Please model this.
Amino acid sequence: MTGLAVALIQTRTPATAQAGLAHLEPLIRQAAEEGAKFVLTPEGSNFLEQRRDRRGLALTDEEQDAAVLGLRRLAAELGVWLLIGSAIVRSGHQGDDRAANRSLLIDAGGGIVARYDKLHVFDVDLPGGETYRESSSIRPGDGAVVARTPWGRLGLSVCYDIRFPHLYRQLAKAGACMIAVPAAFTVPTGEAHWEILLRARAIETSAFILAPTQGGAHEDGRKTWGRSTVVGPWGEVIARLDHDEPGVLHATLDLGAVETARASVPQLRHDRAFSAPGDAE
Model:
C-alpha cells in the first residue's frame, strides 16, 4: 500500500460559521489540489467566539450550522475524507444549554461517519492572568471514539484531551493507527507543552498523531498557538508549521510504520492490574 497523503489545515477562525466556512474553503481546496486524500481541520473550525452574547447568536444545531453543511458539501465535491476537528454546536441534551465541542468525520461522499464530543474541558487560571472556564459553555462528552477509514482506524480527541494519556492508550488498544488532536491551544501552554505532549502520546501509542491547530490573535480576543504538527509512531516529528499563520501542512503516512513500532516495543500488550497507591509504611 502506498503512503496516505494527509493535509492539516491551520486556521484563525472568525466569530461566525459563515465566515468560518469562507476562511476554511480555499485552504481545503488547496490541500485537495495538492494531492491530499484526508484533510483535517482544527478545534472550533466553524466559529470561535467566547463573548457570551455573540456566542449565543452564532450557536446552532449541527444540522443547521453553515460551516458544517458547507464542509460536508465540499468533501463530496472534492472526493476527500475530511475531519472537522471540532464544530461548536448545540449539544442536543434537554435541560443543558451548553454546547458540544464535536469532532465530525466526513467521508468522500459528504456523509458523517463518526461523531466525538470532547471529553475533557479546560478550566484554568493561568499565571499571566488569563482565565478559561470551558465547562461553563461546553458540555463534555461521555465516550471515546475510534472510527473506520479506508486506510485504517482513526482515534478521535480534541485539544485538552492530550493531557490524559489513558484516553490515548485506550484508542490505540482499540486499533487506532492514527489519532487526531485538533486544537486551539493557549500561547503559554502551547509554547511550553504542545510538541512534547504530541510526541509523548505518539510514543505511548505507537500511532501517528495528526494535530491541526488554530493560530494567532482572534476576533474574540483570544490568542492561540499554531504549530500544526504530524508525529510518527516512533515519536519523530514528520511535518510541522513553525508559525501561527493560516496554511496547509502536508505529510505522507507510511501506516506500516505503526506495526513496526508496536512490534519493536509491544507496550500495548503489557498492561498489568495493580492496586492503587497508598501511604508508604
Q: What stands out?
A: The chain is about 25% helix and 25% strand.
